[in-house]
Amino acid sequence: MDEKGFLAKSVLTYAGMVGTWINMGTVLLGGSLGWALGERFPAGVRESATAGVGLVTIVLGVQMSLKTQNVLVLLLSVILGGGVGGALGITDHLEQGSRRVEKWFHGRPLAQGFLTASLLFCVGPMTIVGAIQDGLFGDWSILGAKSILDGISATALAAALGPGVLLSLLVILGYQGGITLLARILATSLSGFDPSHPAVLELTAAGGAIVLAIGLGLLNLRDPKPANFLPALLFAPLFALLFRAFGW
Q1: Tens digits of per-residue pLDDT, 48-58?
Q2: In angstroms, what is the C-alpha Rg of the chain?
Q3: Cβ count near 12 (within 10 Å)
Q4: CA–CA distance from 155 to each of 45, 53, 159, 240 (Å)?
Q5: HEC letters along 133-148
Q6: Residue 74 in contact with residue 238, Cβ under 8 Å?
Q7: Phi and psi of 193, rounded to 5°?
Q8: N or C: which end of the chain has fewer CB within 10 A?
């Protein structure tokens, strides 16, 4: 491939990260608005918008989960994934790590805003599931919902912590965008990649269950610690292949 061809392919690849670009756009807009408004940003608006995002997130989760072709595969994946995640304490480790790093930057507003926003926007199952979904299928609906929530959060954070929140754009691009690119490269490099393959569908369904858990948390109905269920994304395709091999 010549230099022009490689450049064109690279541009198309990065252009395919629709969800990440939208996410960065809402954070840039919300962060800039919050920085300009300061503490005048009303908390009630954020609460109402968060509840709205929670409702839509539940709808997305149900839609994804219904793609399962074998409820037993989904059930086993979620139960085993949640058990492994709980035993490993994924959620607890993430929370402890966040608090520990925040202490390192105590009293430094720019760094604190950058760190807090980066953790909020990138550490969570919605980022991983949404980025994979965008990379494999070009479906950025999950990241679209996340973008609205992040934009609102960026407004509130920038009002309190200042312009350091805007520096999190680099983390969103590198981390979330990187996951999308890896998923897209995997999908395009595999010969005969089939989006309707049982393993892919069960991966999507397991991701939907995690998204449902996120929606419940956003609505303050329950805190199922969705990050603990991330191992289900590994078990779902494995169980799907196993069940298919045995003709179940």
Answers
A1: 766 777 787 78
A2: 19
A3: 9
A4: 11, 16, 6, 42
A5: HHHHHCCCHHHHHHHH
A6: no
A7: -60, 130
A8: N
